[in-house]
């Protein structure tokens, strides 16, 4: 089955600086890679996703890059703000063509924005 | 609306007691539904998924079971809780057309003592 590794487990950056979180996956058949943000005591919220036919996707201060050859993808947050502090999860999935598709998650990165 | 409701929000139960967590969803009919568990300091683990009423698939062997008595209702149960069942339980649905895009409910925090 799929295995997703996520690094670092904790990341502390100064407000206004950039933050980068990296993930690797094992199954070359995976073709969908979402990123979730989870605030304390709440369910994860989808913030951005990318499919294997795209190398990069950007949404305001958030961008995701995908390298299918190396089987890794990254989340980039620029101009970080205090409200960016949260746990971020990457995930990978393969559209099996029928039925439900569970996501395989990384173990999360606790992002701390220092004022 | 893709709203997902979960209750209770928090639950403290003694070891050996039964469990019933409920999830209901709004929006399109016949959604694919999922139960995940999140242990402290760890990622999310898929426990069960359902593609329709009465259809349950289990991803990992465990002390828990799931049922889907109605199209938009998904229940997580146990006959006898273990200490290791403590965690944050999340119900999710996918977007239908693109099954991989999943949306999560607010979660239930379960503490087994």
Largest interface: A-B, 25 and 28 residues
Helix content range of chain B: under 10%
Distance between the termini of chain B: 37 Å
Q: How much of the residues of chain B is beta strand, in percent?
A: over 45%
Q: Helices and strands in order, then pairings?
A:
The complex is a heterodimer of chains A (115) and B (113).
Chain A: E1 4-7, E2 10-14, E3 19-25, E4 32-38, E5 45-51, E6 56-59, E7 62-67, E8 72-77, E9 86-92, E10 104-105, E11 109-114
Parallel strand pairs in A: 2-11
Antiparallel strand pairs in A: 1-3, 3-8, 4-5, 4-9, 6-7, 7-8, 9-10, 9-11
Chain B: E1 4-7, E2 10-13, E3 19-25, E4 33-38, E5 44-52, E6 55-58, E7 65-70, E8 73-78, E9 87-94, E10 102-104, E11 108-112
Parallel strand pairs in B: 2-11
Antiparallel strand pairs in B: 1-3, 3-8, 4-5, 4-9, 5-6, 7-8, 9-10, 9-11
Describe the structure.
- The complex is a heterodimer of chains A (115) and B (113).
- Chain A has 115 residues and is mainly beta.
- Chain A has no helices and eleven strands.
- In chain A, the strands form two sheets. In chain A, strands 2, 4, 5, 9, 10 and 11 form a six-stranded mixed β-sheet that branches. In chain A, strands 1-3-8-7-6 form a five-stranded antiparallel β-sheet, with no helix packed on it.
- In chain A, β7 (62-67) and β8 (72-77) form a beta hairpin.
- The model of chain A has no long low-confidence stretch (mean pLDDT 91).
- With 113 residues, chain B is an all-beta fold.
- Chain B has strands at 4-7, 10-13, 19-25, 33-38, 44-52, 55-58, 65-70, 73-78, 87-94, 102-104, 108-112.
- Chain B is globular, with a radius of gyration of 13 Å.
- The relative contact order of chain B is 0.33.
- The chains are: A mainly beta (115), B mainly beta (113).
- Chains A and B meet through β4, β5 and β10 of A and β5, β9 and β10 of B.
């Amino acid at each position: 089955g799929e295995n997703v590794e996520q690094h670092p487990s904790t990341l502390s950056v100064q407000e206004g600086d950039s933050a980068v979180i990296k993930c690797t996956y094992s199954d070359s058949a995976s073709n969908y890679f979402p990123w979730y943000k989870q605030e304390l005591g709440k369910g994860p919220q989808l913030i951005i996703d990318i499919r294997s036919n795209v190398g990069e996707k950007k949404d305001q201060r958030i961008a995701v890059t995908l390298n299918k050859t190396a089987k890794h993808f990254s989340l980039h947050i620029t101009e970080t703000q205090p409200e960016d502090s949260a746990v971020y999860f990457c995930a990978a999935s393969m559209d099996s063509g029928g039925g439900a598709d569970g996501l395989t998650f990384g173990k999360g990165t606790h992002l701390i924005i220092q004022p | 609306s893709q709203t997902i409701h979960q209750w209770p929000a928090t639950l403290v139960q003694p070891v050996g007691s039964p469990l019933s967590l409920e999830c209901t969803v709004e929006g399109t009919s016949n959604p694919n539904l999922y139960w995940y568990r999140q242990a402290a300091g760890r990622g999310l683990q898929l426990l069960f998924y359902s593609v329709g009423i009465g259809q349950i698939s289990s991803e990992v062997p465990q002390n828990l079971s799931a049922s889907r008595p109605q199209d938009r209702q998904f229940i997580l149960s146990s006959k006898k809780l273990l200490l290791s069942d403590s965690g944050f339980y999340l119900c999710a649905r996918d977007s239908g057309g693109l099954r991989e895009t999943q949306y999560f409910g607010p979660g239930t925090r379960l503490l087994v003592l």
